[in-house]
Task: structure prediction
Amino acid sequence: MQIHKSIASLRAARAQAGRVAFAPTMGNLHDGHIALMRAGRNLIKADTVVASIFVNRLQFGQGEDFDKYPRTFEADCKRLISAGVDHLFAPDEEQIYPQPQRFHVTPDPEYASILEGAFRPGHFRGVATVVLKLFNIVQPDVVLFGKKDYQQVMVLKNMVHDLALPIEVVPLDTVRTADGLAQSSRNNYLSTAERIEAPRLYQQLSKVAEAVRKGEQDFTKPCAVALAELERHGWKPDYLTVRRRSDLQMPEKPGEPLVVLAAARLGATRLIDNIEI
Ligand code: PAF
Result:
């Protein structure tokens, strides 16, 4: 695997790379990330698989964990090599933000101020801005994102569509541990007791999904039960709601493909998860 610290070096490699599958990350890689890299090789059958590691200051709000976000570069490189990644773009801040960023990609509030955006103002503006920049540098044909960050995928798919970028966005299923917990860098922050409790989020989402599949039409009912159950076990939920998949707005018509999404704090750690119904 070739490691590129500069845009110039990555661009020189891009010229020889053929059809490129790209998975942007912030590092601290887990099995979910590695599944994206492997899909680039095995599912997309790209000529070249490119990953990036860049902890993007722009997408962290005040009081969020930018400084304490785990930087595990050596371990990440080993995992990327064993997943068959050809090129890693690992710029420092000076490469990506040589001066304060003056142009931003601001998603419509309809996409970016709901759900995660309501609790993390400016988050999706920061994500969309750095991702467009990474796309311009890497010039991928196909990009891979995990569905655990469901709203992120929705925002970025719409960005690619609205800005007519010649890129295919491929969302991949969330990778879970044996007890159902979605793989996430944030799981590392959980204490032993919290780690045992953490799969309850997935269990409650599964119950809501099951109720809706069985024909429950008032989605608020199973969501209220799930929220109460989480609170009873010490969680502090931000939201747990059924939305339509395409734009994460409230469902309006019967038959629309749905997803149930949640975010909740367990101790000091905020976890998100979702299940397509
Ligand atoms: O999902 C992430 O790790 C980040 O939001 C991304 C897409 C790499 C942008 O910084």
